[in-house]
Amino acid sequence: MITRHGLITACLSFLAAFLSAGIAHADFDCAGSPDGKWLVAGGDNRTIFVLATDKWEVKQRIWIGARIKSIQFTSDGKRCLVLGGDKALRVFSSGDWSLEKTITGMMHFSVARNAPVAIGKTGSWRESVITVWSTESLKMVKEIPTGKSIDRIAISHDGKTAYARSTTQTNAEEKESDAGPEPSDRKAKAIWKMKKDGRVTDAYTIDLMEGRIVDSIRCFDSSGNYRIYPTSSGCAFASYYEYTGLWNRESNEYRVVSTKTYAYGSGQASNGMIYTGSLSTFLSISEEGVFSGQISTEKLPGFPEYLQAFSPLARGRIAGFTDAYRVIVINTEDNSILRYVNVY
How many domains is the chain partitioned into structurally? Predict the structure, then answer.
């Protein structure tokens, strides 16, 4: 017998799947509060859902009016920052979920996990500016012109360093006139084509205290829709394509680890493991580039479901959020699935 709850869940799942099935680069994210009390999630329906994790109930539904690009909590958990597709960063109080402030013109942002600092990306497409903010006063404390065309950014957990990656550009000096025969392997073929055409990206390290770029490395891979995650030796780039890039700053080495599956979304657990999600599957990758096999999730009947975002929770758990508006709670010790939660 079909219950009213089951019918509503099925209808919402169908609508979400219809709107976003098969669409890479979709707008979804989720964020767990540092104390593990809240999970905030949102996507292309322009609403954020505030879930209390004790009973996994939706406590607030807040209309944003724009697709959700990114959600992050401040290090003390007192505020939740939500970036919309309209380039407006909305700051909510996690006490009563009132809107404290809206910062416009923000293309990307990143919040330090262990410090009251956040960074944002503003400026033009060709001349990106990194802005440094206090998450306590909600005031900008520094502007760092990069002179570079920056695509994505991330801040280290201690709030002292920013990592950035440029947009893909053609560099005549890197173009290989004799790139050799075209490989059959998909990953090798993508890198071969970039070298053949001279298409490159650069990764940068920015010292936020000094306000300047202090390190860079050239990357040959066809990254797309990636997110940057700090690691103990540098940073990682979890790409939509079938690999993750690892930059070891100590050895100044950039290498690519093939995951053999597209990553529609990603996130980093408290233990440093990076999670990527695809069609009803996910996997985890260590800072050393060792990844687990694909873990399958419980499929919705008749609907494709893509894992679009991950966020750490308390007590060794991580939450995955899908484009069918389901939360999947995962044990990070063995990647076992603990719970499915429908969000509506």
Answer: 1
Whether residue 191 is contained in a domain is answered as no
Nearest CA to 278 among 317, 318, 322?
322
24 pLDDT higher than 50 = no
Show the domain range for 208.
4-170+199-342
Domain at 116, CATH number: 2.130.10.10
Which residue in this structure is represented by tokens 């999947």? 328
Burial of residue 108 (CB within 10 Å: 0-12, 13-18, 19+) is buried
Sign of CA dihedral 311, 317, 320, 324: negative
Asked, for residue 179, whether it belongs to a domain, the answer is: no
Sheet strands (E) in 53-180 = 57-63, 68-73, 79-84, 89-93, 99-103, 108-111, 117-123, 128-134, 140-145, 150-155, 161-166, 169-170
Q: What is the pLDDT of residues 301-334, one digit of tens each?
A: 888 999 999 999 988 999 999 999 999 999 999 9
This prediction has a pTM of 0.88
80 part of a folded domain = yes
